[in-house]
Amino acid sequence: MSMPHSLNEPPALALKDITCTFVSRDDPNQRYMAVKDTTLEIAAGEFVSVVGPTGCGKSTLLNVGAGLLAPSRGSIEVFGQQLVGINDRAGYMFQGEALLPWRSALDNVTAGLQFANVPKDEAAEKGRDWMRRVGLGGFEDRYPHQMSGGMRKRAMLAQTLIRDPDIILMDEPFSALDIQTRQLMENEVLELWMAKRKAVLFITHDLDEAIAMSDRVVVLSAGPGTHPIGEFVVDLPRPRDVTEVRSDPRFVELHTQIWNVLRDEVLKGYEQQKKKAA
Amino acid sequence: MWNLIKPTSKLSLRVWQFTILTIFLVGWYVLSIDKKMAFFFGDPIGVVEQVWLWFFVNGDIYYHLQITLTETLLAFAIGTSAGMGAGLWLGLSPMASAVLDPYIKALNSMPRVILAPIFAMWFGLGIWSKVALAVTLVFFIVFFNVYQGVREVSPTLLDNAKMLGAKQKQLLRYVYLPSATSWVFSSLHTAVGLAFVGAVVGEYLGSAAGVGYLILQAEGTFDINTVMAGIVVLTICALLLDASVGIIEKRLMKWQPSHGETEKL
């Protein structure tokens, strides 16, 4: 499903004036506005990272884009078309454990094909291929509990990419990994992305990761009423190595610029968390 | 000294278990030398003789055992599938579960053995009145476990499956059902025991065949040895049924991490 990329083409994913208000189940008068008047566009083939303080509603935005959560106000457009229900052109890599524990790694990777009624042999063959691509060759029969955290993430990546989605949503996919595994996987994701050039919306709280991987970094304000407060184009050349690019002077410059915007929000977010805890 | 006999290895464990049984049997035998005691408690040799007669001389236990086991298995199958169906339905439909909640609580707290006479009226003295009684016992155990299992499916798993393109039916088959199975199995051990209890109690309260019927007849003639023999046979059957559930569980649940398991390479 490859499309010509041109400037006139509608964005792969457009969130328009999204507002999400959650109502407390115990007390209907208590509302929490997680996201307020947020507009975010991701062009086809563009890698966009969203950074922001913890608990600012980043995941809410992603769930809206995935069609898992209907916004209180605003609209979502996918390649120019109004989104109704689940966004079936998107693949979503979750933050937590999303593999089915009763399925082997291969059966997990091919789950999406099975749901689409792809013949079993064809699905298995494709699944093996993808498992090799994410470095899991030979681990097809393992159950999730027999794999390490990094291996599970790889399986989740293969599970998402095997369906060849036009939009890839990632919710802090590597936050639970140790730093070495993390950088390895960041490079692998970049490599896979370079080969296919799909639109990516990448949520993270790690600014280094965001700059190293993306074409554009969007900074969100602290909640409640999260909205974008800054946008930075990352003009570092590709292909990049996430470890090496960190010492690039332009990287450092961008990091300082973005951090100046982000810092106040992080402090605000931290204060709010403290207040909530008290 | 203690170190020598401490049950550490599998063999010494078995020796210990066997010793306890032997002490119990010898104690029982010594007690039963007194005729008055033997009247109330029976004697182990008489019990063994009776079991021997049933199985190898007269062979009349097979018919009764077959009836009881048929009732048990029928009740187990019907109760389990009904419990799973109802559990899935109510677990997936908050509206229905909210409406039916008080009735389920009431039915569950009701002493259901008391339904036996009603079932005898409805279904006669054949096997179906026993099956019905046992089903009422099995159903709720499985039902509550499946209900719980369905409601505790991780939302991330569900969201992930939805994003991978699973439709409602596929969610049910590939996410809800397998997720509930682990809960079901934890209930099946109890369920198979209760199916047996239901069948035997049903027979005991009115029947023309079955091990419960045999026990009732023997009790009528103060033949305590036969009563004991019946209990022994029932216990062994219950253990066998439980073990077969265990085997199936082990097969189907091999994906579950067992404690301290090392990687299988």
Overview of this protein structure:
The complex is a heterodimer of chains A (278) and B (265). Chain A is an alpha/beta fold. Chain A folds into 2 domains: 13-89 and 168-277, P-loop containing nucleotide triphosphate hydrolases (Rossmann fold, 3-Layer(aba) Sandwich); 98-164, no CATH class. In chain A, 36% of the residues lie in helices and 22% in strands. Chain A has 8 helices and 10 strands. A 6-stranded mixed sheet of chain A has the order 6-7-8-3-9-10, with helices on both faces. A 4-stranded antiparallel sheet of chain A has the order 2-1-4-5, with helices on one face. In chain A, helix 4 crosses helix 5 (149-161) and helix 7 (207-213) runs antiparallel to helix 8 (249-277). The termini of chain A are far apart. Chain B is mainly α and 265 residues long. Chain B has one domain: Orthogonal Bundle (MetI-like fold). Chain B is 81% helix and 0% strand. Chain B has helices at 2-5, 10-32, 35-41, 44-57, 61-92, 94-109, 116-123, 127-151, 155-163, 168-205, 211-220, 224-252. Chain B is globular, with a radius of gyration of 23 Å. The two termini of chain B are 41 Å apart. The model of chain B has no long low-confidence stretch (mean pLDDT 87). The chains are: A alpha/beta (278), B mainly alpha (265).
